[in-house]
């Protein structure tokens, strides 16, 4: 398929398989016979951060056939994540010749008529931003065409931003290993999105009535609640504060607390009666910690 301004763009989006082959095979099986304009992998292709660079290189060799097959489904674009060693000076896999196109960290690249970058500072109206780390403030304030990310292992979708959760979560942190999910995203010529969430293991979709302002969530299915913010309310106010500060173009040290509270309240519409007072307290406490 070829991107066209008058046609709907179709993306196959995934990330965080952490060296696992089975999850990529599940994606290939689940999309058999389908075609996409672009296939996006948001990083953590390996688990080298925990398993070592040598093991990570073996993992790359093992997943190369799956990447070749994905590249036949559409234009495959990928980035490295933190578990691929994409932090610090060494960058061990930058020389590895994976199928597909690497999206530059500090530049833009045009593939099949669409522009991609990892750098938020380079985003324009028609740019697709792909990075590994998650910027939740972009849920409400992203100016480009689409934003795809990963890393946090709890997926999220709102407006033009999608965090893809994970394809395979390892047991490195003591929790059980889990197969996760991937997404098919269609973007119409008028910018409207359609999201097809495809679970391959232990992830479920949730819309929390208390915290729906922060978007649709995709969480491990063993959670007692569908919402990460119900477990820790500070996480909710942290994201609200980040979004409001970003929207105002300021930082906490320089912001007027009442202006931030007013902006957030007007942005999120219907909120609990305690919303403004709790956000005000959160901001004041964080300001004192600075």
From TrEMBL:
Pfam families: Metallophos. This is Metallophosphoesterase. SUPFAM superfamilies: Metallo-dependent phosphatases (SSF56300). It comes from the Archaea. Residues 9-154 form the Calcineurin-like phosphoesterase domain. InterPro entries: Calcineurin-like_PHP, Metallo-depent_PP-like. It comes from Halomarina ordinaria.
């Amino acid at each position: 398929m070829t991107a066209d301004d008058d046609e709907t763009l179709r993306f196959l989006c995934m990330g965080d398989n952490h060296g696992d082959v089975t999850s990529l095979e599940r994606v290939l099986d689940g999309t058999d016979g389908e075609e996409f304009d672009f296939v996006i992998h948001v990083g953590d292709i390996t688990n080298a951060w925990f398993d070592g660079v040598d093991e990570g290189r073996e993992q790359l060799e093992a997943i190369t056939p799956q990447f070749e097959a994905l590249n036949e489904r559409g234009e495959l674009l990928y980035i490295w994540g933190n578990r691929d060693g994409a932090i610090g000076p060494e960058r061990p896999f930058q020389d590895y010749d994976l199928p597909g196109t690497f999206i530059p960290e500090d530049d833009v690249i045009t593939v099949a008529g669409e522009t991609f970058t990892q750098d938020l500072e380079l985003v324009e109206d028609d740019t697709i931003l792909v990075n590994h780390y998650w910027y939740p403030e972009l849920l409400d304030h992203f100016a480009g065409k689409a934003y795809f990310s990963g890393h946090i292992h709890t997926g999220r979708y709102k407006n033009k931003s999608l965090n893809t959760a994970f394809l395979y979560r390892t047991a490195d942190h003591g929790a059980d290993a889990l197969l996760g999910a991937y997404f098919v995203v269609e973007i119409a010529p008028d910018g409207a999105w359609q999201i097809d969430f495809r679970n391959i293991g232990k992830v479920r979709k949730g819309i929390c009535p208390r915290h729906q302002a922060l978007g649709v969530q995709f969480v491990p299915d063993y959670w007692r609640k569908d919402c990460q913010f119900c477990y820790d309310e500070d996480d909710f106010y942290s994201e609200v504060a980040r979004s409001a500060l970003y929207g105002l173009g300021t930082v906490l040290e320089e912001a007027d607390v009442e202006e931030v509270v007013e902006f957030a309240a007007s942005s999120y519409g219907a909120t609990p009666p305690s919303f403004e007072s709790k956000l005000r307290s959160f901001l004041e406490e964080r300001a004192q910690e600075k």
